[in-house]
Design goal:
By secondary structure, the chain is mainly beta. It has helices at residues 2-15, 42-48, and strands at residues 18-19, 31-32, 35-36, 58-59, 63-64, 67-68, 77-80, 101-102, 108-109, 115-133, 145-153, 167-177, 181-197, 204-205, 207-211.
Length: 237
């Protein structure tokens, strides 16, 4: 009985997402080896921001733990199923999912639920963790995601998250993701990474970060992915 309880506790510790709370980091490198990143003009971002008395834009790392942030690659593109009407470009635009800045005025907010936000990395890469939150500064603690899947695709980013081109790598049904939080999973090949939100009252994501090693695009596309969205319902939280 004690051994079983110990194993359960170890599993919970391993699968519990990690929270990051570093603020006002300096601008990261514009290049990392052969990886080139999007321009991060914080003066322009701050000028365009309507912060409402809350913290303004903060830099998102281009490199974290000696790994390039694939969501900030020069050719990476954001997409979403919908967005909250009436705010963009001051706040909550789809392009703010990977613009290189944290916090509410540089965030995306979903319109219709269920729905999704995704990043097209631009090429197939190895991926094994993402980092995202609702508002890095915690100036706002509403609009959090608590019931969602993380999906990947290598060839087709079907609008339907249940299409067999998508593969689920993580399912979350637990504590709301408010602070900037790291979620890890097994190595997998991906060009598109999607956060599919099933419920919540207007979930917000201020930035999606994607990592997969020191040289994650040095992979050869394969047909190794066989687990589809409808087959795995495991809650790893």
């Amino acid at each position: 009985m004690r051994i079983g309880l110990f194993c359960l506790l170890v599993t919970l510790i391993i699968n519990t997402p990690s929270v990051f709370a570093e603020h006002n980091e300096e601008k990261g490198p514009e290049k990392f080896g052969r990886y080139e990143f999007k321009e991060q003009d914080i003066d322009a971002a701050t000028k365009a921001c309507e912060a409402g008395g809350k913290p303004g834009p903060e830099f998102v790392p281009t490199v974290r733990d000696k790994e390039p942030n694939l969501a900030l690659l020069k050719d990476a593109k954001p997409e979403a199923s919908s967005l909250l009407d009436g705010w963009c470009p001051q706040r909550h635009c789809t392009e703010y999912l990977n613009d290189g800045f944290y916090n509410n005025c540089r965030s995306w907010i979903i319109g219709a639920i269920p729905g999704w936000a995704q990043i097209d990395i631009g090429e197939v890469a190895n991926v094994n963790r993402i980092i995202f939150g609702s508002d890095h500064s915690q100036g706002f603690i509403d609009r959090t995601a608590a019931d969602f899947d993380i999906l990947v695709a290598t060839k087709v980013a079907d609008a339907d998250s249940e299409a067999n081109t998508w593969n689920i790598v993580y399912t979350h049904k637990g504590a709301p993701v408010s602070k900037t939080t790291e979620i890890t999973f097994d190595d997998v090949e991906a060009r598109w990474l999607r956060i599919h939100i099933r419920t919540n009252g207007g979930a917000r994501i201020d930035e999606i970060e994607i990592y997969g090693g020191s040289d994650p695009t040095a992979v050869e596309p394969t047909e190794k992915l066989t687990t589809v969205w409808g087959q795995v319902k495991t809650d790893k939280y």
